[in-house]
Amino acid sequence: MSEIVFETLAVRPEGGVLFAKIAAPPMNLLGPELVRDLVSLIQRAEGDDGVKVLVFKSADPDYFISHVDVTKISEYRAEAAKLTGEASIALLFRHLSASRLVSIAQIEGRVRAAGSEFVLACDMRFAARESAVFGQFEPALGTVPGGGAVQHLTRLMGRARALEVMLSAEDYDADLAERYGWINRALPADELGDFVSSLAHRIARFPGAGQAAVKDRVNAIALAPTDEFRRDSDLFGEGVRHPDAQAQIGAALKHGFQTRDGEMALGRVLGDLPDR
Amino acid sequence: MSEIVFETLAVRPEGGVLFAKIAAPPMNLLGPELVRDLVSLIQRAEGDDGVKVLVFKSADPDYFISHVDVTKISEYRAEAAKLTGEASIALLFRHLSASRLVSIAQIEGRVRAAGSEFVLACDMRFAARESAVFGQFEPALGTVPGGGAVQHLTRLMGRARALEVMLSAEDYDADLAERYGWINRALPADELGDFVSSLAHRIARFPGAGQAAVKDRVNAIALAPTDEFRRDSDLFGEGVRHPDAQAQIGAALKHGFQTRDGEMALGRVLGDLPDR
Amino acid sequence: MSEIVFETLAVRPEGGVLFAKIAAPPMNLLGPELVRDLVSLIQRAEGDDGVKVLVFKSADPDYFISHVDVTKISEYRAEAAKLTGEASIALLFRHLSASRLVSIAQIEGRVRAAGSEFVLACDMRFAARESAVFGQFEPALGTVPGGGAVQHLTRLMGRARALEVMLSAEDYDADLAERYGWINRALPADELGDFVSSLAHRIARFPGAGQAAVKDRVNAIALAPTDEFRRDSDLFGEGVRHPDAQAQIGAALKHGFQTRDGEMALGRVLGDLPDR
């Protein structure tokens, strides 16, 4: 596979590894363009036997993927349907988890809501200790995470920490995310790129047959059934349409939500919204 | 809901949060009075739409909840039945886990056996690094934990650590409890109260609909079925009536078990009992 | 039970505890002799009501159990069948997990592949911080772990870390193994023996009835069904017979695999093999 520049992804092949850099200014929102490009990338990579590992990173040091564009829910869902036949990013993300491709997220900057769910769908995730920030804040807006976070976080960190993370809607740094099992490991920012690159190439050099069998067996235990992802996706949609959620989202938008500056400390912004 | 003083609980409302302080001298044993008051508190709070979060703490810096009063098992079980219809604290605790109320344990001092099971039933638990002590010692007396510990600990910390904790019947400090996933986090004692209060108010301010849906979805994955709690509760009852367990409990009572002084270092007391 | 010296195990009884020291020079490979002796030890210990706890340690400071002898797969499988009726070490190991005996691994040196799977089958495992090294490298050779690692690691550390450990085939030190939940705890080497001995005797002194019930209840939640172990065992056999795996194993043997010196840093050796 040769070098490809999508509108929101810069993709560089290197041996059996594809490095995909997310570049959707101003803040890497997950909108229709980025979903469309992720679908194209996954389709091409799965169709190319020379590709074994996908590494995702960000061109923006402050944002990996911020979250979905709440003004374009039906549009990005329509793009996701082009891969799975269903208008849901939960199923798109689950497709990635079930793929023969090994996926690794190299996280610098903010990954919240669907951003967090995207990295949770990757097979592994490593984060820069100094800069990565995690949040699963949908309940602060009155709805549930719709892209798989309930499924992944509950299995990774257990009932109490998963409830804390989602009900608090708070920001978590990389060290705490590691202690909670949200990510594989927090690493110093200046070691992260080399670590991930070296790991990706190492995995790409080993025989593929055993790896595919291991993924299948691990997924049989720890990847939730499609129906559970579908249900969470539906609940997100129902929740977000509720007048209380609409009012809360409206208030959040007035206080900086979905702006680059306003989301630098989103956890605090959400905590300062008027009571509901 | 206005301020209420139960016999063993002092309850203070503050916005959508109820702060309930456990005060059952001399050592916060879980006997009929405390179970009765917990049942009343939960019923009232669930019936009041203005209450969203319950915070439990202790009036005794050395004991949060020590464990059940082993001399009054049928009495406290009868009180538990007033909430759930079944004479089992396991089902009372599970009711709390399944409630629309968000429950947070702020732990200072000792939480062992049913005390540990109570905080495991809470949605979240934070402990004072300097003073909190955890133990799940029922196997040292010849029986199984009957209030849900097997279900929660195994899912939270995995097979090996859950077996270690229960079979060793040892005392664990807050840092180790955090590393094992027994609690969400250990915090410095002088920061704990502010942290929990701030978290509780933050959660209470967000819309309730998304939060309830998140609890339901997380519980569907990580809260064990009622039948499993019922089974553990029955096994505890059978175990405790066995002559070997009765002899071991008798020996423990002679060596300080169920006394305030004797349980300051209960892990050592149990280890020093004669062989069985 | 009196002192017994098997060919590859030195067994010393002390109260209700049996200390079994693995001594299969030159590198504690799991071959037919060690499997035969483990079967004998388990059968004898289970038949002796005075034995309650088994502690496994190694006579070799650099190797606890290195992995199976890849040149004698059918031979060691035949020995395993003498305990369970099926030619699979996965079922032998699962038998130990389901036993009334409490098993503790005291780990110094390397435990990789089936060595790791043996300690994962033990009820608890504690490792020397300075010397223990963990690896689950089967995918580097083109096959899946066949002795239960997929089942245990996925449940203990979650999907992402389990995939990382197996797909990377890398070496992990004791501290990281603790953070990932692979082991109960890493301890300073000079405290490890006393810690494990004291824990083993403590457990052996408590009544057996509650302990057996706790093991049963924990296993019902966290020990995978026999069929899953059987399936992994079959997949390992199929994988290892594939020409790609045979070629990779051949290359590894040429580069020091299955030699004492060559496996001191096996993670690096595997990473340096030619691409597949």
How would you briefly describe this protein structure?
Three copies of one chain form a homotrimer. With 276 residues, chain A is α/β, with parallel strands linked by helices.
Describe this structure as you would to a colleague.
Three copies of one chain form a homotrimer. The first copy, chain A, is of the alpha/beta class and about 280 residues long. In chain A, about 50% of the residues lie in helices and about 15% in strands. Chain A is built from twelve helices and eleven strands. In chain A, strands 1-2-3-4-6-8-11 form a seven-stranded mixed beta sheet, sandwiched between helices. In chain A, strands 5-7-9-10 form a four-stranded mixed beta sheet. In chain A, a hairpin with a 2-residue loop joins strand 2 and strand 3 (about 15-20). The longest helix of chain A is centred in the middle third of the chain and has 20 residues, at about 150-170. Chain A is globular, with a radius of gyration of 18 Å. The N and C termini of chain A lie far apart (about 50 Å). The model of chain A has no long low-confidence stretch (mean pLDDT about 95). The interface of A and B includes residues 163 and 164 of A.
Order of strands, main sheet of chain A, comes to: 1-2-3-4-6-8-11
The Cα radius of gyration of chain A reads 18 Å
The helical percent of chain A reads 40-55%
* Largest β-sheet summary of chain A: 7 strands, mixed
List low-pLDDT spans of chain A.
Answer: none
How far is the first residue's CA from the last residue's CA of chain A?
Answer: 51 Å
Oligomeric state: homotrimer
Mean pLDDT of chain A: 96
What is the H/E order of chain A?
Answer: EEEHEEHHEEHEEHHEHEHHHHH
Q: Approximately how much beta-strand content do the residues of chain A carry?
A: 15-25%
Shape of chain A: globular
Structural class of chain A: alpha/beta
Number of helices of chain A: 12
Greatest interface:
A-B, 40 and 33 residues
Number of DSSP-assigned strands of chain A: 11
